[in-house]
Specification:
The structure is a single chain. The protein is an alpha+beta fold. It has two domains: about 325 residues, 2-enoyl-CoA Hydratase, Chain A, domain 1 (Alpha-Beta Complex), CATH 3.90.226.10; about 90 residues, PDZ domain (Pdz3 Domain). It is about 30% helix and about 25% strand. The strands form six sheets. Strands 12-13-14-17-18-21 form a six-stranded mixed sheet, with helices on both faces. Strands 3, 15, 16, 19 and 20 form a five-stranded antiparallel sheet that branches. Strands 8-7-9-10 form a four-stranded antiparallel sheet. The chain is globular, with a radius of gyration of 25 Å.
Length: about 450
Amino acid sequence: MKFIKKIRVTFLLTAIFGTIAMTLFVGKGLETKVSAETEQYKDLKIFSEVLSSLKKSYVEPLDTKDLVYGAIKGMLGSLDAHSAFMPPEVYKEMQVDTKGEFGGLGLQVGIRDKRLVVVAPIADTPAAEAGLKAGDIILKVDEAEMTLETTLMDAVQMMRGAKGTAVTLTVKRKSETKPLTFTLIRAIIRINSVKSKVIEAGIGYIHLSQFQEHSARDMKKAISTLLNENIHSLVLDLRNNPGGLLNAAVKISDQFLESGQLIVSIKSRDGNKDEYTASKNSELGGIPIIVLVNEGSASASEIVAGALQDWKRAVVVGMQTFGKGSVQTILPLSDGSALRLTTAKYYTPSGRSIQNRGIEPDIIVHPEVTKTVATSPIVREKDLARHLVNELDPNADKTAPSAQSESDDEISPEDFDPSVQKANEDTQLKKAIDLLKSWRIFKEMDPILSVKKNLR
């Protein structure tokens, strides 16, 4: 099998496909192939018998498609924690997430106390312009009532739609005695995964929330803007970034490393290996960089943090990361559904597998609990049922049960945004700023110390 670079869209990461060489078998080799296919057909015959029995004898009428979908989900569910079957609506939602734009209203919503609540309207969108506010409880979308059975995905699908179409929201606001009605016209909503600012004199700050199609382009713009504002240090915030596209992780790492430096290597089960290296020198030169991570930093975030840590290009600060060292490939199916299949593992430039381990920060800083920083049970890769074993630690427990949150809240990933949190309320960010200040002070002291040494 010849391994080639072909990046595919995935829910958390992308993978690389191999090109299967069609080989003619003769003699014993051909017999082995036919035998294997025969065994497959025997198993499929059993499946067909079960399907037929269910359709014929079950106490209530059954839909064949529902049964087949259930069987596929069962197959994928018997694999690792990240392989899964995605029905058409889930696959479509994943594509929206990775693309970073959709037709909709511009609302961040969540389920709180079993009610659909506005978390925040996104600036410069129909929702913000219409006057919807954080805390509004959505009672109806058009004529559809939001009941206890309405899922977050159901509600989101109702509010999304083609640009220029109308939707009416009925909401309950704490300050009003009667429900309010808003009629909005859908627009193209773009979710910018990169936010940047000068957080203190000379210190730049970039928050990357997810690795999407345009994240590398937006990162390049953010870096150029900060350099034009004469920054001398930088904080790259990857906290609670769940990952995204592999090519985005590679292109973003490329902007911090030097030409020829290895970013990540990927190995499939047959041992084929593919390596990604930086293609050009970083515009950042040698300015000090701190990367902030926590237990919510996963997958593509760990690729970037691991590469910068291995090359001593940045100091990693915060908490141990999630520990997802596997790569998923999306395999579209004919009816609009898709498989999310784990096909490879990735390794940092030094050859580390972070599977079940995560990235260990150079400096561990625990977050301080404040009014704006909520706490929740910490769940990492090693806590997931059916997680893959790290081959460097083969005795690790593979059957740990899935950890469950005790909260009923269901909130979209965009809800946590450190870029809008005050630095003095963010212990980890404050530590990063203090370290960068100290770094600069000690650097300026070097010539003074050298002069004093020579005078002795």
